[in-house]
């Protein structure tokens, strides 16, 4: 199998569990809102703040920080 065919096959298999695809897809506010609404159907969510990819939050200098894939 040549390099192109292998890359094309890998791309086709990639889903939302792939970090790159997850970040790019959910960076779109409309798609992100649709996903949130499908996960939380009992809530009425009308709009969201523009999502940021790979956001790190550090609460204090001596504390461990956390990283959100989408924030």
What does this structure look like?
It is built from three helices and two strands. The radius of gyration is 16 Å and the shape is flat. The chain has one domain (1-70). The chain is an alpha+beta fold and 71 residues long. Strand 1 and strand 2 form a beta hairpin. Strands 1-2 form a two-stranded antiparallel sheet.
Amount of helix? 40-55%
The radius of gyration computed from the alpha-carbon positions, rounded to a whole number of angstroms, is: 16 Å
Sequence of strands across the biggest β-sheet? 1-2
The description of the largest β-sheet is: 2 strands, antiparallel
Shape: flat
Our measurement of the CA-to-CA distance between the termini, rounded to an integer number of angstroms, reads: 39 Å
What are the low-pLDDT stretches, counting only 5+ consecutive residues below 50?
none
Mean pLDDT: 84
Summing up helix and strand content along with how strands pair, one would put the structural category as alpha+beta
Structural domain count: 1
Range of strand content: 5-15%
Please tally the helical runs, counting DSSP H or I stretches of 4 or more residues.
3
Helix-strand string: HHHEE
């Amino acid at each position: 199998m040549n390099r192109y065919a292998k890359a094309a096959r890998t791309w086709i298999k990639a889903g939302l569990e792939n970090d790159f695809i997850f970040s790019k897809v959910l960076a779109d506010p409309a798609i992100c809102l649709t996903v949130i609404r499908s996960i939380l159907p009992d809530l009425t969510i009308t709009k969201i703040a523009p999502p940021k990819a790979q956001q790190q939050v550090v609460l204090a200098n001596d504390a461990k920080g956390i990283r959100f894939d989408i924030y």
